[in-house]
Amino acid sequence: MATLGKIRKHGVLLIVIVGLAMLAFIVGDFLSSSTSYFNRKREYVGEIEGQKIHYTDYDAAKDQLTEVYKIETGRTDLDEDAYAQIRNQVWQMMLSDNTLKAQAKKIGMKVTAEELQDLCYGNNIHQIIRTRRVFFDENGQFNPSYLVQFLASLNQEAETPEQQANLQQAKSYWMYWENAVRITRLQEKYTSLLQHCVVANSLDAKYAFADAQTSADIEYVMQPYYAVSDSTVKVSTSDIKALYKKHLQMFKQQPNRDLVYVSFPVVPSEEDFQTAEAELKALQTEFFETEDLLTVVNTNSDITYDARDLNVEDVLPMYQEFAKNGKTGDVAELTFDEATNTYAMARLVKAGYALPDSVKLTAVAAEEGQENQELGWYAVKALTKDMAEKVFACKKGEQFTMAQGMGEQTFIVDDLSKATPKVKIAILARTVTASSKTYAQIFNSAKQFIVENPTEEKFAEAAQEAGKLLMPANNVTKNADKIAQLKQSRPIVRWAFEAKEGAVSDVFECGQEFIVAAVAAVREGEYAPMSDVQNELRFEAMNDKKAEVIMAQLKDVKSLEEAAKILGTEVQLAEGVSMAGFRFGAAAEPAVIGTAMKLNAGEVSAPIKGLTGVYVVKGGEKQTTDAEFDAQSQIAQLNMRSSYSLPYQALQLIEEKADVTDNRANFQ
After folding, report:
1. Cβ(392)–Cβ(383) under 8 Å?
2. What is the largest CA-CA distance in the chain?
3. Residue 411 burial by CB count (10 A; 0-12/13-18/19+): exposed, middle or buried?
């Protein structure tokens, strides 16, 4: 009983304790079980109109487009800018696809499997497929039989890992363009529907025709805003606020940052030059005398030697004279090229002989019933070394076979060009670069700069004192691929969006320079703050005030001569003014044109506030051409004009209004 009494006495406290324990248990269990939920959220690159984009799908699309890019351009060494372009293009395709599909679904519009088949390899092959160079013949024209052969090859069985890789690349290439055709066709159908909804009528045609056929020579007097001194007008903060509110939609922005940065270039020291020179001097005797030239050069030189036969003009410029006038066995001593910071020496391996520069080839048909394909002429330097060697081993009319893709291809040497002088030359070159010691010294200098200047204010002052150029990078967005032209600078963007205003970064390695940056401004709002745009608003407000001053001076004028006298200017003439034009004299002034063309001949307008100044105009005699009005022709012209801009504007508006979450910045 005593125990029960104590429990009753402390009942409220016990309830609280038990409640907290249960809450801790529930919260702990929730946090544990929901870890996968939060991780799942971090797996999505974005969401477009309710369609979540998983990062694996995004990566797969990037890989696919990368392979397409390599095939289309013939390049395998894609640079940073190319990869950035690929990432942005993949996202744009996903954005276009998902936003348009959402709109098309509402009206039951789609591209059927049968329609896609017809566009890709049927009777109405789409221009996207027709312009792929892999399906061109020797005349540079689309050849349907090449397309058929390509599609047939996709069904072959691969016998080796290399063949499997080539087959997979070909399939991925085709799937990309097939999807591109589907997206483009859906866009074409959707915009075509809009174009049939937004059409000109007979009244549009009538007014457009009249505007184009009627013109007048207009006399006018004009006072430009710049002729009024800024000191004579006063712009208040309320004036700027009013304009900011009026033009608010013009100042929409993405979250962005302003940065400033300084560079510490990674350049070789004097010691690095001395070391490079000493190392090459030590190799000189061996290079001049060795029989294993391939090993000596390719182990020590920045220029690969492959024993290829070269024309003199294809030799490194600094050794062209040597190659032209030398003989087999001649050597060029070690020299230094200041323009490229390169030490080099050369050895003529073979000289005084001649070989053709180009070859005419025919590809032998792989199967009976097929025709051989004439390939035309190829410059020998455009061939691989192995292929060039096989070509030179043949005489006119002979054949040779090369491994190609998943099989072999036999070629006929139809003809060879006239033999021209050739040389084999080995060049042992070393471009001087910063050593690890120099690299560390420059890195430490950048680190020390940060330690001594931990705030943006000190950062800027120290840069100026040290004679370093303080570089700005304004309006950097979260998805920016790099800062200005700095190589591999995406990490700076990531840092900037995690840092506070005024923060100074750690050292970033961007190509051949170390970068230290500081955040000068942070902007997160949907619209640019008034402080960022007040200069342009002030300029507009100043012009508004100047317009008031000028218009007050001209308030009661009855003639152009009177207006000219007040302003201290002259009467001018704008010839051939019409409502179909947009220029009045030397300026674009739509309000002035509209007013002038409404006036009767000889009628003088009130002062008109234009874009570049204040005008007073006098109506001129209207001249109308005797062209005959054809309503149907005029309507067709108006519809044709809108057909150029309407598709782009419609698709752009769909994307702007779409519900889009973009998390790409977390994945790149």
Report:
1. no
2. 120
3. buried
Q: Which residues, at least 6 apart from 363, have a Cβ–Cβ distance to it below 8 Å?
A: 372, 373, 375, 409, 410, 411
Are 474 and 258 in contact, with CB atoms under 8 Å apart? Answer: yes
Q: Are 43 and 55 spatial neighbours (Cβ–Cβ below 8 Å)?
A: yes
Residue 439, strand partner residues: none
Q: Where are the beta strands (DSSP E) in 55-164?
A: none
SS3 content of the chain, % helix, strand, coil (to 5): 50, 20, 30
Residues with pLDDT less than 70, the chain: 1-41, 405-406
- Report how far residue 662's alpha carbon sits from residue 73's, in angstroms, rounded to the nearest whole number: 29
CATH 1.10.3470 for domain 44-197: no
Per-residue pLDDT, 585: 83
Q: Which residues contact 246 (CB under 8 A, 6 or more apart)?
A: none
pLDDT in tens, 525-573: 999 999 999 999 999 999 999 999 999 999 989 999 999 999 999 999 9
Rounded to whole angstroms, what are the CA distances from 71 to 78, 145, 157?
12, 20, 22
Helix axes 113-121, 161-197, angle to 10 degrees: 110
Q: Which of 526, 652, 668 is nearest to 92 (CA)?
A: 652
- Say if residues 610 and 586 touch (Cβ distance below 8 Å): no
pLDDT of residue 406: 61
Q: Give which of 588, 597, 596 is closest to 617, Cα–Cα.
A: 596
CA distance 510 to 37: 36
CA–CA dist 237, 529 (Å, integer): 14
Tell me how far the alpha carbon of residue 619 is from its chain's centroid.
Answer: 49
pLDDT given for residue 24 in this prediction: 45
Residue with token string 């000190």: 458
- CATH topology for 256-267+434-524? Chitinase A; domain 3 (3.10.50)
Residue-wise pLDDT for 595-612, tens only, equals 999 999 999 999 999 999
